[in-house]
Please model this.
Amino acid sequence: MTLKSRLDALRRQAGVVDAAPVSGPTECRPGVELSADEAEPVTTPGAGTAVTSFQAGAVESEPGVTERAPRRDDLRLRLQRLSGRVPTRTRCQPGRRESTVALAARLGGEVVGENLILVETCLPLDRRHGHCRLADALDPLWPLAVPEASSATPYPHAQQRPRTRLETAEDVAARNETAGNSIIGIDTETTGLAGGTGTAAFMVGIAEAGPARVRIRQWLLTAFSGEAAMLAEVASSLAGADLMVSYNGKTFDLPLLRDRQRLQRGAALPEPPHLDLLYATRRLFRGVWPDCRLVTAEQRLLGLFRKDDLPGAQAPAAWRNFLAGVAADTLPGVVRHNALDVLSLLVLGPVLARVLRNPSSYGADAHAAARIWSRHGEQVRALQVLERSRHHLDTRGTLELARTLRRAGRGAEAAILWERLAEQGVPEAVEHLAKYHEHVRRDWRSAMSYANRLAPDPGSERRRERLARRLSDPQGRFDF
Amino acid sequence: MAEAVEAGIGLDDPVRQLVRRIERRYKGRITGSVVFPERPARLLPFPSELDPRVASALRSHGIRELYSHQRQAWDAITAGRHTVVVTPTASGKTLCYNLPVLQAALHDRAKALYLFPTKALSQDQVAELMELNEAGDLGIRAFTFDGDTPGDARKAVRTRGDIVVSNPDMLHQGVLPHHTKWAQFFENLRFVVIDEMHSYRGVFGSHVANVIRRLRRVCRFYGSDPVFVLSSATIANPAELAEGLIGDPVTAITESGSPAGERHLFLWNPPVVNADLGIRASARSQATRIARMSVRSGLKTIVFAQSRLMVEVLTKYLKDVFDGDPRKPARVAAYRGGYLPGQRRATEKALRAGNIDCVIATSALELGVDIGSLDVCVLNGYPGTIAATWQRLGRAGRRMRPSLGVLIATSQPLDQYIIRNPDFFLGSSPEHARIDPDQLLILLDHVRCAAFELPFRRGDRFGNENLEELLGYLEDNGVLHREDDTWHWTEDSYPAQSVSLRSVAEGNFVVVDTTGGRKDIIAEVDYSSAAETLYEGAIYMVQAQTWQIERLDWAGRKAFVTRTEVDYYTDAIDYTRLKILDRFEHRQDGRTETAHGEVHLVRRIPGYKKIRYYSHENIGYGNIDLPDQEMHTTAVWWEVAPEVLAQCFPTRQQALDGFLGAAYAMHHVAALIAMSEPQDIGRAVGDGDARWFATVGAEGRGQMRGSDGAEQDPVHETRFRPAVFLYDNYPGGVGLAEPLHTQRERVIAGAARLIRECECSHGCPACIGPILASDELRGFSPKTAALTVLAQFSSDDSEKPA
Model:
């Protein structure tokens, strides 16, 4: 059998009908004309659009098709045959890859290290972001920005500032976080979504809200050799931050950066207090929205509808194609996508804090909001939130409201809520009423009528026996 | 551990009584017997440098001295040498590695990784370590890390564990791809313990050797170079296997210093019940007989069976005898793979507590699962290897008390060969455990995984193929990206997820009981045995209770069953077609061609037989509609030229019967010669172009079937060129076919001897496979036909009929 016929037979067997011939020309396409829309670095107003078709002058070396070394064929054939697969892609053409300098120019960035581009963008605070403005990023984050399990206090000065008469604790916190405290939003674009040490970040975006403007810095690798320098830049940004805001960054972005830093044998990354907005979003909107992705939060809370956005899931392929010398026309889309992500992070935090104050007007779970307030010791606020949403509460929420009312010494109001629930046959409410009438109202008869509705278990049996004794001794001289 | 030998073992010992009774009553069935005298302990003092806290923990467990092998292990391991310890069951092998590990953990906070082939074993180990830890108040933290470890506990395991107990699959999928999270652990990793090393052979072993290559590569990244301590049951080549697994020279400690009681062993051949057909009573009937005698004598008994199906059948028969009264606790239990973990743990516990008198098990109990000691071990059939036989027999034998093992032959040729030649079995060394870590597909899988974990650089080594070519192949497939001298992972995937160490295809099947609207998972079945176990109509058994499979969701990996009471079980029919792709080596003369090369194989399970309990008669057939399974592998085959065939046989039908008979005998002899288990090698008869294949039909005759499975008449075949194939039963092959090609003359000569020396007249399951009574009326002897085929295969002219 000739080599070719063996190969053909194998490929037929492997079910390959129409793959490119194994030793034929490569699939690398010549540069594709960039549409102005895609190429425009939206986040760089005034920087001038540096659209370069990299066909024209940016190609580093001749676009020749390299012949594969013939000695490789034996092993290659064995592998193909055993695996029943024929490679559908061919080796990349590094010669066709756009140069770092050309790409930087096209993105409106600068080369800040070997194979490392920095795209820096400054935006005024009055710039619109959906129906919000970037200035919203300076609004208070309280009570979100108290990291639950962090020992570090993000606002060490909060208690020391004198309070004016009208200021609440949250106002103080808000003023502190914007005055002199640095809050950054961070998001990465990675070579894959699976995690593990083989997944690398090829882009890190960091947005920082200042008193006068928002600054976005985005580092983009044009080769793996730029990674160490990029991670060093990220480390110094983190070192200067008082709070870092992310979306799923606790589980994905930051562990990934730490893992890659360890692979580079670099010093451990600084760990500023970290607010991962995914957690609060999930608590408030799980079951309300179809999903809790950042894009959904942007649409529902910020009124931001992205146009021509490159979905984040396509970012890995965009960079892989760039490395392989296949058309790199999607990289500007990745830069833009990432910039919008980090801007949204800055604005979304304060908006979520607003949601917490008045959850029902956003369709959010008031019960969850109240629990966040209670956890930070804000019982009054928790009660307020529940009361304002009392007509939207489900059974669980109403029970919580009643519990909070009773704790606040407003047992009669709590009883009204329980009675309503008891009519619907909610057993917890019946039990609360039995307790309330026995211990607060000391109305044994009512207590007994509720106790009689409780399911038979040792606890309710004891209650009924006790109430029976009390009823036979209405003076309450019974000694317990 | 070293307390005085009990003095009172006399003639009235129940095991000795049972031995005498069997010798008296069944003399004719015993073809060989041997008594191993008791062996006293050989003891050595604790090493002087042993930490006093560890020493006192040992003393509080009644251990005042070490067995000689434990002391030797200490000396080798503490000197920094990779060490393999080969000792029998219950000889205190765990101390061999626990002592150096505890010592280093106490003195240097050194860490250790323990790998066990199964989760059950690792749980036993942690329990044992913790006992020692508490007894000596050592403050050592040992944690298991496996699929059951909850997410929030994992961080503590990574950062705080002194000893992490896991399995190779978890290391492969859960630890190495996340090694940066384990940095602290790897930096201080001093020992890697690999227990039950003998289970890492064949495909699994080849994978594990590559996982260890990856482990050592990651360790080098963190600047550590751990000492490997391996333990193994008896195999012929422990040092060689250990060296193959870890890729470095290893010191072997093979002399056990532990004591052993007197051990009796009988080789037992069931009596002939039909001399014409060479049919013997079933091994099953003999096994239940001996188990009954043993349990009635008050002895704790274990019966090993070859298949899960046979476990269920035997359990039913023994439960019918001993567990007739449902109000009493069960005395008989089954134990096999496929049961849920909770069920297995409960059986283990009941065994340790002595609440069960008889357990029927598959090889699942061959490993060191702690079930306490038993008195009598019955093997229902030769386990396939000498090593596994001794390993299973070792399950019987309490410290310094007599024990009995009985090996019962089935009518399989291998069993009959072993049982009729007791000296072969008693005199042979156990098998070699073979691995081929450089098998191309396996190696490539792990090069991918390794590249994900750390980028490869030019000049790196990984395995013994040309690494740069492999990296180049992955580069071409868009998996890796080369930058200067470094290959980086760029694919959007997690490669370890798609590589399974144990089987080639992914995904276990679950068996779901839907009786009365329930939805309970009652068992798991691995992919490789799913096709022949799970099909609509199949009877599925758990603890001898029967379910019928109503619906199979192949893609969703689910079988839905309902409870049923039937008096039969089901057995799948298997059709295999092969196509020759490439001849690596071949020898050809005018008559025959013998070759070794690559084949493409398609396996189909077209139907099943219903077999009645006890009588084992065939009471019906059913169809199975399952996707074909395909595999590329290596094979060795023998073909005979059509003209020659025409000269030797009056009809093609006779030739077909001859080929099938010869293949049957060759398969079993080949397993013996390759020192592998029979299921590692597959056999098929057919045309080398996959146009047709042959199978033994319901009436015991060869049938020719086309590629669509339809029966054909061999007379009409234009190209009647049958071949016998013996193939490596693993995708890609693990190197079994080549040695068979080099030793092809031994295969043919051995098969011819097996057939010629068989006592039957026309053929029987012990030589050419089962034939039916009507075969005497065929007008020719299938046995002679098989010998004629073998004579053609042989290049030695003396084998030719005159």
Notes: The first strand of chain A starts at residue 110 and ends at 113. The mean pLDDT of chain A is 77. Residues 52 and 103 of chain A are 8 Å apart (CA to CA).
